[in-house]
Design a protein that fits this description.
Blueprint (H helix, E strand, L loop, with lengths): L10 E8 L3 E8 L14 E16 L2 E14 L5 E3 L13 H10 L5 H8 L3 H18 L7 E9 L1 E8 L4 E5 L5 H9 L9 E4 L3 H10 L4 E4 L1 H20 L4 H9 L1 H5 L7 H13 L1 H15 L6 H13 L3 H22 L9 H16 L5 H10 L4 E5 L35 E7 H9 L10
Parallel strand pairs: 2-4, 6-9, 9-10
Antiparallel strand pairs: 1-2, 3-4, 4-5, 6-7, 7-8, 8-12, 11-12
Length: about 450
Amino acid sequence: MNANVLNLPQYRVLKVDESEHDYHVYTEIAVERTPCPQCRSGKVHRWGAREILFKDLPMHGKRVGMYVRARRLRCDDCGRTFQERLPALSEKRLMTERLASWVGKQSLKRPFTSIADEVGVDEGTIRNIFRDYVNELEAQFEVETPTWLGIDEIHILKPRCVVANIESETIVNILADRNKKTVAGYLHVLPQRERVKYVAMDMWTPYRDAVRAVLPQATVVVDKFHVVRMANVAMEQVRKGLRASLPPKQRRGLMHDRFILLKRSHDLTVQEQFLLDNWSSLHPTLGEAYRLKEGFFGIYDAQNKAAAEMHYRAWESSIPQVVRSAFAPILTAWNNWHPEILSYFDHPITNAYTESLNNLIRVMNRLGRGYSFEALRAKILFTEGPQKREAARPKFERRNHREESFLAMRTISSLSYGDPTWDDETERNLGVDIPTLAAMIEDDRFSAGPNR
């Protein structure tokens, strides 16, 4: 085998032993001796040596062990003894720097156990490198603060806060939990947080409290879909309560037809409308619940905030006592959140994209068969490919010669050249693009396997 098999010029290869699964490469340092760290004198002499085993990048499908004779030196001037510096080797672990870098990148793509087996170290070492690598990426991770911020949540072992850029349909960050302290801490360190004008969220009080404390200039908008979903929940509660009292045949029929009750009236087919009318005539309470569900959805057809308020008041007064308990959570939510709910009619933004990314994360979690939160978050945020980037200014476009050109009204001498504040290479990171992430999952470009 070639003496330069390691391709590390700082080392001289003395011998290579090959086994079925491994290469054992014996080396010594080829560079000049290290000067004394105490007095910087170059007058040093050998004072012993010890052999240390480091792991290097796999080669030809085999693991590589690099045996280094680390010399201990003694300074002739000050008498201090020290070990010479070992170039190209990691200071934290018994491996080369290039192997540690490679493992870090691979840990975002592959299961830890697979990497550990290929390299010849234990899984705990891979996990520690992964954490260091993620911390390094975290320090470099800069995403442009959005004007329209979306805050939602997903359950990965426990509820986690998901932050999204609604305008660009991207994931901005995933937080460890959804507590006010965590959310407020994240918002506080957002670069140029004054840019945030609107925040769409569900009705989770810690989110609102965090935004009010850190982003007082932002308008909180309760996500429309979280509000109208409550009407479907109330409808289901009435259906389930009625179903328990029905004979078996009708019970099975009502279970089969539950999707009709959840559909909007304008989406029903003729046959579905017939079935709905039949259930409503047999069980007026069910028909009343469907009417109320549709009426509540209709609030969002209002043209402005005042009309929506009037529609709600009329809807509330029409709730009969027999189903009032099922719709009571809507009344409570409206009383506690009505300014933020009505803000939608001034600023019609929703967390629809945040909901879609939550679905994607659930799929990833299933494919991963139990990723830890840290591993799943790192794979989503830092894997190369899904990041959505945009030039700081649009591409130059030629003007129509028939249009009156601004430049034509100025003399060449009046033009300013070379704006020192503009960097043509500037690129904005908008976060993780959801459609690209979806495509990567569908194409199986996210490796499945437990990184716990």
